[in-house]
């Protein structure tokens, strides 16, 4: 899904880039991004993922980077069609992936992963005990599927229909850290620690990566489909779903919710039904809890005017004039570097 990159990650990546360049070391953009993530995780103390770093290092102008965070595999680049445009609108609320909200959601997701693996292992053992040695091909296929889920490494590799069919009803909405540790000992995440005295949102944090993976694949497929009203509506709906899924995890904010609501008001007002250009969707970006909202719409003057209307309405409600971002630029790997030389003054004649 569309990303707005956090400034701290850009500064960190730029620093690494120049360090390796002047040291004469040859390092790939992907390796550079992974090193930046390690610094954030283990030095800064921010339990972030790697999407922002990969976008900053491997991205190209006017294209979206398709990748799988397992841990950071690039699938390719997807052209942004000429009739589609993205904007970023800054809420004025500073977000941080080092804060308690983001960290607790990550803990909840890893708790959910471990719980699902435990449930799958139990179902697999039960199936083996019931079937003995007389299982047919269908039962063997079901056992293999349960076996793969019992050794699941990433929640996004679990399909939504399997999650709904077998696991969602067995996941608590909230789980106490102490209770989870008593049952499972650990959540198998190297960059976060479970607080025994804290309650964690389990179901929402587990559900988000499972459905977000599906939404991202659908988003990519829609970008390459033919231009139509259905294409715009579906892309926008996926962004709205992502936004509210993030909010369900506890990563929303009043400012970003207000911006998304303003987009919806313009989208559904009577003046936007003429097809002369309107906005179709919006979502919070990055680690959530503030930051920038990404908006999608038709690439035309009318849509840009509507973005300015949102900027004006937001200022009227909050007294903050949000910054608007548009356009695209290459990542560090494609851009390379600029060498700045001091201009020598010509000798003055005596």
From TrEMBL:
Record-linked InterPro entries: GHMP_kinase_C_sf, GHMP_kinase_N_dom, Ribosomal_Su5_D2-typ_SF, Ribsml_uS5_D2-typ_fold_subgr
Thylakoid is among the record's keywords: no
Pfam family, one: GHMP_kinases_N
Superkingdom: Eukaryota
SUPFAM superfamilies named among the record's database cross-references: GHMP Kinase, C-terminal domain, Ribosomal protein S5 domain 2-like
Keywords for the protein's UniProt record, in alphabetical order: ATP-binding, Nucleotide-binding
Molecular function, one GO term: galactokinase activity
GO BP term (any one): galactose metabolic process
Domain GHMP kinase N-terminal: 22-59
GO annotation, cellular component aspect: cytosol
PANTHER family for this protein: L-ARABINOKINASE, MEVALONATE KINASE/GALACTOKINASE
Name assigned to this protein: GHMP kinase N-terminal domain-containing protein
Organism: Genlisea aurea
């Amino acid at each position: 899904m569309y990303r707005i990159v956090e400034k701290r990650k850009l500064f960190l990546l730029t620093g690494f880039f120049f360090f390796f360049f002047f040291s004469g070391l040859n390092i790939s953009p992907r390796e550079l991004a992974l090193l930046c993530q390690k610094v954030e995780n283990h030095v800064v103390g921010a339990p972030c993922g790697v999407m922002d770093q990969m976008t900053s290092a491997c991205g190209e102008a006017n294209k979206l980077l398709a990748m799988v965070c397992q841990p950071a595999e690039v699938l390719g680049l997807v052209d942004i069609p000429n009739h589609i445009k993205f904007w970023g609108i800054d809420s004025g609320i500073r977000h941080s992936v080092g804060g308690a909200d983001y960290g607790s959601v990550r803990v909840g997701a890893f708790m959910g992963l471990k719980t699902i693996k435990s449930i799958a292992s139990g179902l697999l053992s039960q199936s083996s005990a019931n079937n003995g040695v007389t299982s047919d091909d269908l039962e063997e296929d079901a056992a293999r599927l349960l076996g793969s889920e019992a050794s699941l490494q990433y929640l996004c590799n679990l399909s939504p229909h399997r999650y709904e069919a077998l696991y969602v009803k067995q996941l608590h909405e909230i789980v106490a850290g102490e209770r989870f540790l008593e049952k499972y000992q650990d959540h198998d995440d190297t960059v976060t620690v479970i607080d025994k005295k804290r309650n964690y949102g389990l179901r929402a944090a587990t559900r988000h990566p499972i459905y977000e993976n599906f939404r991202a694949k659908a988003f990519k497929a829609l970008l390459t489909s033919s231009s139509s009203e259905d294409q715009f509506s579906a892309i926008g709906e996926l962004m709205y779903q992502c936004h509210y899924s993030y909010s369900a995890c506890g990563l929303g904010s009043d400012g970003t919710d207000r911006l998304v609501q303003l987009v919806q008001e313009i989208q559904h007002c009577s003046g936007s039904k003429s097809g002369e250009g309107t906005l179709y969707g919006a979502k919070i970006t990055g680690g959530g809890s503030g930051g920038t909202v990404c908006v999608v719409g038709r690439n035309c003057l009318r849509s840009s005017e509507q973005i300015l209307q949102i900027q004006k309405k937001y200022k009227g409600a909050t007294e903050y004039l949000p910054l608007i971002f548009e356009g695209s630029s290459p990542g560090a790997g494609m851009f390379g570097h600029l060498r700045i030389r001091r201009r020598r003054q010509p000798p003055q004649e005596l």
